[in-house]
Amino acid sequence: MPDINNNRANQPQPNQVTIAIEQGSRALGFRDIGFADEPRRVAQPAVAATAIDLARAIDLGANGANIAQLLGIESIAPDGDPKGNVPLSSAIDQPAGATTVIDPLATVRENSQAARAGAFVFLPPDGRSPGYNAATAAYSATALARVVDPAQFLPVTDGTSAIVSAKPVHDLSFGYADMDSYAIRFTLSRSEQRTLGGAELGDQLQGAVLRGLGLLVDKLVFDAIDAATPETFDFGKMAARNVGFGDITAVIGTSGQGATVWQDGMLRSKEGIPARLTAGHAKSFAGVFSRAFVAVWPTVNIHAKRMDANGNLDISVFANARAVLPTAALDFFAVAA
Hints:
Shape: elongated
Oligomer: single chain
């Protein structure tokens, strides 16, 4: 019978990167099987595995305020008080105590320029893994991204049929099982864990993972725009998409293409569109980013493999994500050089 008092899903999770490092440094390369008085030793990888749940708050501990700055969170809001606009709300809370609690998904959004420009970053609603097999059946979960245009009314003469026009919806679907996989991998020596700054290393690496997921969101969105071979920005074509000037944002890539700083100190594209900087792509784009969607799988897996008797670790972090832009060729443009 399930425990109705189990509130684990509502309780903040500890730093999973630190746990992986601590468990990985003590992982054994064998296990004993058989009877206790006559065991047989079997070799196995000396690996510890944990996971960050992006749907569950993270407790940063007493050092939370410093880590919040690393994550790009500028201020601490009272418990339950949203910070920023709706997509970025409640990134961090300070309960009555010494610890700081953050929303990992909101932190990912805050570190994505595409999300800040309006792209919708979400977690699949079903907590089970794609392709999960139950005792009697299997299932496949599919997501649908839809952009709805205003219906275009055309003149019609009495007694005649209306002209058939295009549907005012643009759909693009994908299966959660088809979400692409991404990983980072690096080594961590025992001396790095013991020297100056080693005590905070787990917190900082966790921050790097969350910030890296924000950068991954940018890469996926801008790669999808680039794959649609966008035309050079044109105000007329943007007006035809029934959007206002305030709905359009430019994002300047690492080439700096089209970047200008106006006399008011604001960064804009050469067309005069308010702009942001991103490391997620070399090119620069402008468009309606609220019509871009990015699914991020809620589980980010961490593997820490002990490489030798000295405690040196091989750290791997795995994530799954997918960008879906139903109107990539209509609502996004290349910024003029």
